[in-house]
Amino acid sequence: xxxxxxxxxxxxxxxxxxxxxxxxxxxxxxxxxxxxxxxxxxxxxxxxxxxxxxxxxxxxxxxxxxxxxxxxxxxxxxxxxxxxxxxxxxxxxxxxxxxxxxxxxxxxxxxxxxxxxxxxxxxxxxxxxxxxxxxxxxxxxxxxxxxxxxxxxxxxxxxxxxxxxxxxxxxxxxxxxxxxxxxxxxxxxxxxxxxxxxxxxxxxxxxxxxxxxxxxxxxxxxxxxxxxxxxxxxxxxxxxxxxxxxxxxxxxxxxxxxxxxxxxxxxxxxxxxxxxxxxxxxxxxxxxxxxxxxxxxxxxxxxxxxxxxxxxxxxxxxxxxxxxxxxxxxxxxxxxxxxxxxxxxxx
Length: 347
Ligand SMILES: NC(=O)c1ccc[n+]([C@@H]2O[C@H](COP(=O)([O-])OP(=O)(O)OC[C@H]3O[C@@H](n4cnc5c(N)ncnc54)[C@H](O)[C@@H]3O)[C@@H](O)[C@H]2O)c1
Fold this sequence. Notes:
Strand content: 15-25%
Largest sheet: 10 strands, mixed
Bound molecules: nicotinamide-adenine-dinucleotide
Order of helices and strands: EHEHHEHEEEEHEHEHEHEEHHH
CATH architecture of the largest domain: 3-Layer(aba) Sandwich
Number of domains: 2
Helix content: 40-55%
CATH topology of the largest domain: Isopropylmalate Dehydrogenase
Oligomer: single chain
Radius of gyration: 20 Å
Structural class: alpha/beta
Shape: globular
């Protein structure tokens, strides 16, 4: 029997509840589909930081490297540990060390979920560059605290980095409806974004079967609201992708439904799957976190592991659950009730 070993990091707040739910669903589908999923849990979180002085041990990355995939809940509890410490101590080092350069987020409405738009007919796959660009961390501050203080933050765009994320996006477009929207701001940013547009055109010539359109990020933000049905795969830099995928989460009904994958497409290191939302301190003790985003992220993990039929079964069970009105309204159904409904739809 095929067996996949998964590193499970529940993290903080609702991370534990939504990952418990997702794991229950993943185990159920694995049993019914003839493969095994083995989990190894790591308690890395803000509580772990308070106990040990680190979000994860010094050999944490080496430990994770031997797994087939990583399933993560949420990281951060600002009342205990500053966000900059928790983010830079766990999530970002994993994405960077494992070269998870493609951050992939599907944006579509599950049946029965009410979005804020007039249309419910859209199915967008956002691909965000996850390792360089505006979030490369290159820069500095001088004359700190004086009237002459200067802060510089430089975006880093490498040919290797831009080309590989665009190639990945072209491949996704080929697997879907054959349309790719490449997002820049090349009218204002005349170096990095013009460079991105040039590479887009070069790769477009290699993919004549993909219909490519370049958009400025402001126009794309408007399009995602006014004509989301016109979009298929959307590819953007780290910063632009970050912002557009929050917009994507909003139009698909909110953070309870927003799933994501941090992929190392070449599979040289494990990829990581996580709901987009954070630890939700405001509702963490209440038992009402929506586990759908985490379960959907789990389905993306199955897809990545090659268990495509099982991934489709999970997505069908989610759709059957929300079509019954379960899990569609924030706070109405408890985490346990939503999970039970998904399990029952699976069986
Ligand atoms: N990838 C991550 O691990 C990640 C992502 C975002 C935020 N964070 C961290 O999480 C902490 C809290 O951040 P925040 O409050 O800005 O964002 P958040 O996503 O935790 O919560 C924002 C709002 O959405 C609600 N919400 C989020 N997920 C939900 C779910 N599954 N079901 C129902 N409601 C849900 C919350 O109750 C809250 O009102 C911070 O420390 C932040 O840095 C981590």
